[in-house]
Amino acid sequence: MFSFLHAHQLGLILGAELGTGAMVSRSKDGELIVAALKWSGCVPVRGSKRTNARERGGKEAIHTLTNHVLSGKPVAIAVDGPRGPRGRVHKGVALLSQQTGAPVLNLVAISRRKKVISRAWDRMQLPLPFSTIDGFFAEPLYPIAGEKLEAFRLRIEASLQALEALHDPAEATFNEPPQADAVMSAAA
């Protein structure tokens, strides 16, 4: 399971493995990315987390992605999307990993030449034509028996934020810092 920041999604689509299942929001913005995913040979799975008691298809998407992983195919999730905050990992990737036993592989895709949409909540990075995109991976994170979902989510978040800080420190400064109360409650 590839876990990445929403800001890096365009760079990642260009190098995606054929058949990769990718979670995409049911929003109008999500419609734009579906065409690019299909073009690159990915399988878009529509859904995102629930907001304001309004279901957005997240449970169904996790179920579909679970089946995708169990069939031996990779999945990719923008873990802080579709609305952020930037760098805050949502629980879906941890849940999917716990349900399947598949490791989470955090990834950042840094274009050597890019345009950053600074007014977007995620500071979307648009690779410029003919630019090299470097991919950097963290060590795989496996679910631990008995580990609380929140504790696993926080491990994924810390790893991903550290990876971006190492390879794109200027952009990493825009990540939402971990909530102190979440860290303490996850440890309990």
Write a structural description.
By secondary structure, this protein is of the alpha/beta class. Helices cover 37% and strands 18% of the residues. It is built from seven helices and eight strands, in the order βαβαβαβαββββααα. It has helices at residues 9-13, 28-39, 58-70, 92-100, 149-167, 169-172, 180-187, and strands at residues 2-4, 21-24, 43-46, 75-78, 105-111, 114-116, 125-127, 133-137. The strands form two sheets. It has a six-stranded mixed sheet with strand order 3-2-4-1-5-8, with helices on both faces. The protein is globular, with a radius of gyration of 16 Å. It starts with a strand and ends with a helix.
Summarize the structure.
With 188 residues, the chain is α/β, with parallel strands linked by helices.
**What order do the SSEs take from the amino end to the carboxyl end, as H and E?**
EHEHEHEHEEEEHHH
Approximate shape: globular
Mean pLDDT: 88
Number of domains: 1
Query: From the alpha-carbon coordinates, what is the Rg to the nearest angstrom?
Result: 16 Å
Structure annotation, total helices: 7
The total beta strand count reads 8
Main sheet properties: 6 strands, mixed
Q: pLDDT under 50 segments (min length 5)? A: none
- In spatial order, strands of the major sheet run 3-2-4-1-5-8
Beta percentage is 15-25%
Query: Could you give the distance between the termini?
Result: 27 Å
Give the proportion of residues in helices.
25-40%
Described by its quaternary structure, the protein is single chain
Protein structure class: alpha/beta
